[in-house]
Amino acid sequence: MAQQQMFLLMLAVIIIGVAVMTGSNQFEKDVNAAVQDEMKKVILDIAARAQVWYHRPAQYGGERSFSEFSLEKIHAEAYGALGDIKLINKQPDSFRLIGSVPGDSGWSVIVDVYPNSLSVAQTGVAAAYGHLPTGAAEAFGGQQ
After folding, report:
1. How would you list the strands of the sheet with 84-91, edge to edge?
2. Burial call 105-142: b when 16+ CB within 10 Å, e when fewer
3. 29, 44, 86, 121 — which has fewest CB within 10 A?
4. Rounded CA separation 131/55 (Å)
5. Which of 25, 17, 75 is nearest to 46 (CA)?
């Protein structure tokens, strides 16, 4: 009888260990997805604020051009707890925002901002899991 009880005890310990590891892995994935979703929200907020800045009359600080645009002009930060935000390829009628999260995930969200539309794409591991498909620009009224 003692041998059977010991076997059941060991089996219970193994099952509990596997359940804890599975729960831990799922929790980590959920945390990563939440950080990525928050970064998408921040990037899209910056893009919308940039479009408002673009359309603002000159006497209120608008310029009808993205050439002189910077994150400071809309009181946005380039780096925060979520990760790094880069503003590149500034042209009079567009620019690109890239938001990436810290770590080795290789994940980033890319938004091309135009005066009246956005083009959104995503790279990295999360794109394979369908978080925001690479061709999702149409859903946001973007240009390809």
Report:
1. 84-91, 94-100, 108-113, 118-123
2. eebbbbbbbbeeebbbbbeeebbeeebbeeeebeeeeb
3. 29
4. 31
5. 75
Write the single-letter amino acid at 34.
A
Structure-derived torsion over alpha carbons of residues 129, 133, 109, 72, reported in degrees to the nearest 10: -140
Residue range 36-68, pLDDT digits in tens: 888 899 999 999 999 998 888 888 877 788 888
Tell me, what's the pLDDT at 20? 93
Domain range summary for the chain, segments of one domain joined by +: 2-140
Taking residue 35's Cβ as centre, other Cβ atoms within 10 Å add up to: 18
The confidence score (pLDDT) of residue 73 equals: 84
> CB–CB of 102/83 below 8 Å?
yes
Whether the per-residue pLDDT at 139 is higher than 70: the answer is no
Helix (H) or strand (E) holding 102: none
C-alpha 63: how far from chain center: 28
Average pLDDT value for the chain: 81
Note whether 119 and 137 are within 8 A (CB).
Answer: yes
